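Step 1: inspect the first sequence and its tokens.
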Amino acid sequence: MGDLFKGSHCTCGQKMNLELRMLIHQKKTRIYDVPVYVCEHCEHYEVLKPVKPYVVQYIAAIDGSLEHADVSLAEMNESVHVLYSVLQGADQETEAEVFARFKEAFDDRVNMLLDLFGCARKMKDDDWMREIQERLEQLSEFAVLLPENSNFYAR
């Protein structure tokens, strides 16, 4: 998974790879499946910009809690869930194959959510509509990263 996705350049000048990592907060909360760009040269890492506010918001919500927690960001964030599902077994695929599955997975998820939104609207379920809209917004914010990582996504 590491070198399939090339991200931006690190401050040391090297290319950064996209990986799913675990973040530990205050030695008691482990957040799995956090997409980060990692520099193998200097070990610097950056949480992907569209995901970072979500991680910060989650940490703020649990801050002060005495409980230990192990959570997967893929279970809490629509974009990360799609990314996680695409990257499972991606080590055996070429970069072009992974990007093709990436595009297909994002398109499928958006279409499914739009269908659900239509159902929620017919049912006049405002809460469900709001939830679906938030999930769609997560996907659209994350999709902005795709063109910078590959010529596969031309806009």
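Step 2: inspect the second sequence and its tokens, then contrast the two.
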Amino acid sequence: MDERAKLEHQIELATKAAAYIRDERTASRLRRFADELRQRLFPSTQDRQIKIRARELWEQAGRPAGRDLDFWLQAEREIRGRSDETSD
């Protein structure tokens, strides 16, 4: 089973379980879990742009090990900063 099929299966199981569970706190946690899995399955356009830009920055810097978070945060500032400017 590929990764996409696994995520779809997990979403289905969590959603069904949440519908049958009487404890609202547990049901709510299962629904949130299903939502998180959906976000992994269908990342936003902005998240994809950040991922692409972070990789570009990493490659431009010579592909240093252990600095992925630095490049992700820089890319996030650039991409989200652009979207903030266009929404003004």
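Step 3: confirm your contrast with the notes below.
The helical segments are 3-20, 24-41, 45-60, 68-87. The chain has two domains: 3-41, 45-87.
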